[in-house]
Write a structure and sequence with these properties.
Length: 617
Amino acid sequence: MPSESPGHFSLRLEILRSLACSRLAKEGLTRALEVLVHHQSWDFGVAWLGEEASLRYVGDCLSPRAQHSSPRFQAFIESVRSRVRPARFPGAFPQGNRPCTCNTAACMANCAWGREPAEGGMQSALALPLARGGVIFGAIELFSCEVRNLDSVGRESLQSVAEDLARFLWSRGVESRARLRTARWEGARRIARLAYWECSPSTGRLRAAINMSEVLGLNPAKLPNTIDEYLMLAPEEDRPAVSAALTDLVNPAVGTIEIEHRILAQDGAGDRVVVVQGMADFDSEGNVVNLSGTLQDITPYRRLEDRLRLAATAIDHAGDAIVIFDARGAIMSVNSAFTRITGYTENEARGHQLDVLLNRPSGKHDESFYRRLLGRLRTFGRWKGELWARAKDGRGFAMLLSLSEIRDEKGRVSHHVGVFTDVSRQKEYKERLEILALHDSLTGLPNRALFLDRGQQALSRAMRGGTQVGVIFIDLDLFKMINDTWGHAVGDEVLRRAGNRMRSVMRDCDTVARLGGDEFVVLLTDVGGVDACLGAAERLLAATTEPYLLNGISVELGASLGIAISPEHGTDIRTLLHRADQALYSIKRNDICRVAVWSPQFSTDSSSVPEDQPLQS
């Protein structure tokens, strides 16, 4: 190997000094580049760092004499600074990653550098690869406006410089990667709330990582120094289990432990929960030589588990059925109330659509109903209403259902939740209340309120259709005598049977109502005049005056009937009812006939109810 000249020796020495002052790889590489440019009188140099296939620009150096060079030279410098990688890469060093040179513009134009340096006025170029183990991870390019010739000694010296730079960069890279791994490990430990510990078997003293205070929630000055001090951090009821685990740790037959226990609150935030893992090292004779392991704070996870467990318990014990769906509406989970109401277990319901499982089998809702439901759910994110459903045993029931969307952190629908209850009994109770409010409790016939409502609706239809409506007022004669002779129980049964008889001789479109006491009224719709009303009255009279056989007793009744018809006698239901009552009262006065049709003369006579006051039941 040729001996190194004093100039080249001083070059290496100066570069080594610059590297010694550099802490980072990029800093050392740019300083070495400045030494090379100034020491060997190059006009321009550029440094690259990274992997061979993706080297990154690190920096450049321009000699003082080139500061005011030609515009072509300045354009070349800017083009170099904008490159992704140097022109000589990759595969620019076929001779074992040794320095490569071009001494003429024509040479550069025909090799890997291309025509760009020559067009910028460059006459010589040098590429110095930085490699380790045959892998290039950096490079220095030097350019000169003059022709430069390197002898073998110069090449060898530059090769030595490249090796020095490569060793420096490699060592800094190793250190940087080690620091990065350490920082990542420390970060991971902090995120995982994990600390490392060691214990001397002979002294029982503990040594722990610096973040042990964070894991235990203690002031660093109060960290335990011995196993006994650590045990005192646990609640008294947890200490026996921890002590037993530590005994197993030093047992050669066991040698490892994992135990979860609590740490008494020191910061007022409640007891912590930690997991201790340990491993013992034994010598050839079975003696413990070292104890080590990790300690992890799992308090947030246990608190989350407790909250989830509490929520799950509350859901499972809720009186309402609760269903969780996925984004597509398939059932994921249900609570016990769902099974109690529908008869389907969670395994049977999972994967089904709720409407397919329960609602569609009822046959009470058409497709438009489900489309409206889904439309409101997608528009407003919730829906609430009543649906009919069919349970597993075929029983139909009404459900009050509330549906809501659940969205993820990006605002996308991830789940749906449904809550429903069986409201069949409430609906039945409501219907009974409505029946009681609108029907006579003794006979089950419509009462005055329902009669008036139906009557007014019938009159509205009659006016639109050009038809007539008739009202027949019925009063049962001799009823007081039946009550006085046979008692109220017999009287009530007579009223029930009388009502049934009246209903049996009327059409389905007609209404038979009881106003109270022994008074009944019939609403005739779409009648063909007074004659049709008289025919209906004759049927009612015949039906109600037939003897009633009750427990071997034959009971006889009489009846008086008054008739009014629209529109001749009135155009509202209260007027018709009042005038039918006036016609009935005329029969009571003269006792000549049992059926009478209202005429204007009845209004001039006294009547049972004044015309300006409504009848009361």
